[in-house]
Amino acid sequence: MLEGFEDRYADVNGTRPHYVIGGEGEPLVLMDGFPRTWHGLHKIMTPLAKHFRVIAVDYRGQGESDKPEGGYDKKNMAKDVYELVRGLGHEQVNIAGGDIGAMVAYGFAANYPQATKRLALWEGTPFSQIFQDFAKPFPRPGDLNLWIYPLSQVEGLPAKLLAGRFRHVIDWSAEHLALHPERISEESRAIYAQAYDTPEALTAGFGVFHTFHQDVADNDSYPRWLCPPWLSPIRAPTSCGQ
Questions:
Q1: DSSP state, 232?
Q2: pLDDT surpassing 70 at residue 232
Q3: Global pTM?
Q4: d(Cα 74, Cα 126) in Å, to the nearest integer?
Q5: Whole-number pLDDT of residue 127
Q6: Rounded to an integer, what distance in angstroms lies between the CA atom of residue 85 and that of residue 64?
Q7: What is the DSSP code string of 123-136?
Q8: How many beta carbons lie within 10 A of that of residue 80, not counting itself?
Q9: 85 Cα distance to chain centroid
């Protein structure tokens, strides 16, 4: 555990998320994405804790959080986070996320604008038709291969294929998707592989992708808006007006 931080759990929205908390100042919720856990944020948490009360959340199905059978649409996952921060006594928070964490953070801001002071997104945007057009099902050799998305739509298959073998996914993701794979340490790779290596964890991990069609419908139902002052898009140009 990081110095100055502690592990905690909360009972919210019918599930039990795990989170790591530390620091002083305004509350700042952080969420990383798949195939990582809160550990993916550990290098930024200590410096941020000098200015914020950092709350690094393992979202539903991630890391040490509960892995229920359903509820992985990002609107419902945002409700998990909203109930967690309200349980901590915060009426308004800064919230930031990457990848799946970005989608949950966006869902939080869209559904609970009164509880959102600032929003930052990286390595992911709210899902829309633009993404579905981008995620080609049959890429050419050398093109970006997003095989995780179609596999997630096949009930039960990810767990059967990958249980006990998830380290291969971690290494492939690092080598093909990371900007600097050499910065992903052996320790971190082992942590992520262990976190997703069981059938239960794999079913939950791929469950966040299985709901993408519902996520698109939910995102399309939110009011269109220009980026207000509290939204700080980071490498996420489609986070505004979608």
A1: E
A2: no
A3: 0.91
A4: 10
A5: 66
A6: 18
A7: S-----HHHHHHS-
A8: 23
A9: 16
